[in-house]
């Protein structure tokens, strides 16, 4: 609609209390940096017109947080991307949010994960129950015996297991709260599936050794959109537009008419 998916992700981090954001980017991502920068010419033009609504929308991205950037260089996997942040993060726990995973703002997953980390220490990953037939498409968690509820203890993790071999149907989705010891584990992690350094493999090491505290999972049952998938991207746009106070009423009316007309045409 009127803001890119990455802004929703940054707003999610800010709403969970995080004010320092590092974006790990690659080639041809300069428009992303420009989006979170000031656009003085446009802001001044809107100010002269007295268009305060658009002025607020244009200026908001640059005021969300302290935003920094680093280039990954060679695309060597998610684990390598996280490792690029080591110098910036230092010895503090931190969160990782994948830019193509959009969590509905009404479902504060990251804030819950931060609370679990504050209570238990260690690292926390977001989990989602998936159809067992689809489990091989994700990193999957093996839970400790007796684990249940929305906060579970993780015994092991496997990145995209072979079909039929997944340890559970609890799939890892793109939110993590990590202990800084993850960097040491990543440095010792050999390239895995796809020839890439997998964050799942490093978390597996932490879960096995317990050297950096436990690894917990928060089972997410809210609204999530995979904006890296074209169909899910379209569904996310429709759902968010449907519920917007400024766009929703007119859009809902149009969409109902559109569906009704095409349903009649299909039946004819």
Automatic annotation (TrEMBL):
Q: What is this protein called?
A: UTP--glucose-1-phosphate uridylyltransferase
Q: Which PANTHER family match?
A: UTP--GLUCOSE-1-PHOSPHATE URIDYLYLTRANSFERASE
Q: What is the lineage of its organism?
A: Bacteria, Bacillati, Actinomycetota, Actinomycetes, Kitasatosporales
Q: Which InterPro entries match?
A: GalU_uridylyltTrfase_bac/arc (IPR005771), NTP_transferase_dom (IPR005835), Nucleotide-diphossugar_trans (IPR029044)
Family to which this protein belongs: Belongs to the UDPGP type 2 family.
Q: Which Gene3D superfamilies match?
A: Spore Coat Polysaccharide Biosynthesis Protein SpsA, Chain A (3.90.550.10)
Nucleotidyl transferase domain boundaries: 2-239
Reactions that this protein is recorded to catalyse? alpha-D-glucose 1-phosphate + UTP + H(+) = UDP-alpha-D-glucose + diphosphate
GO molecular-function annotation terms?
UTP:glucose-1-phosphate uridylyltransferase activity
Q: Give UniProt keywords alphabetically.
A: Nucleotidyltransferase, Transferase
Q: What is its EC number?
A: 2.7.7.9
- Report the source organism: Streptomyces spectabilis
Q: Which GO terms describe its biological process?
A: UDP-alpha-D-glucose metabolic process
- Write down a Pfam family by its short name: NTP_transferase
């Amino acid at each position: 609609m009127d803001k890119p998916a990455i802004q929703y992700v940054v707003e999610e981090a800010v709403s969970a209390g995080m004010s320092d954001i590092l974006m790990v980017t690659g080639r041809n991502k300069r428009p992303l940096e420009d989006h979170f920068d000031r656009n003085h010419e446009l802001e001044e033009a809107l100010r002269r017109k007295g268009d305060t609504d658009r002025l607020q929308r244009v200026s908001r991205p640059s005021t969300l947080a302290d935003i920094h950037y680093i280039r990954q260089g060679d695309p060597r996997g998610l684990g390598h991307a996280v490792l690029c942040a080591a110098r910036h993060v230092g010895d503090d726990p931190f969160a990782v949010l994948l830019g193509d995973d959009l969590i509905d703002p009404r479902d504060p997953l990251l804030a819950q994960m931060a609370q679990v980390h504050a209570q238990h220490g260690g690292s926390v990953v977001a989990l989602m129950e998936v159809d067992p037939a689809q489990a091989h498409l994700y990193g999957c968690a093996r839970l400790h015996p007796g684990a249940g509820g929305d906060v579970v203890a993780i015994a092991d993790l496997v990145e995209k297991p072979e079909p039929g071999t997944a340890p559970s149907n609890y799939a890892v989705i793109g939110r993590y709260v990590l202990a800084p010891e993850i960097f040491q584990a990543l440095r010792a992690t050999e390239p895995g599936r796809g020839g890439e350094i997998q964050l799942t493999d490093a978390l597996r090491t932490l879960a096995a050794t317990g050297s950096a505290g436990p690894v917990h999972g928060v089972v997410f049952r809210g609204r999530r959109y995979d904006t890296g998938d074209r169909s899910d991207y379209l569904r996310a746009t429709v759902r968010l537009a449907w519920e917007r106070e400024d766009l929703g009423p007119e859009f809902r009316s149009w969409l109902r008419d559109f569906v009704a007309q095409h349903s009649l045409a299909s039946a004819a």
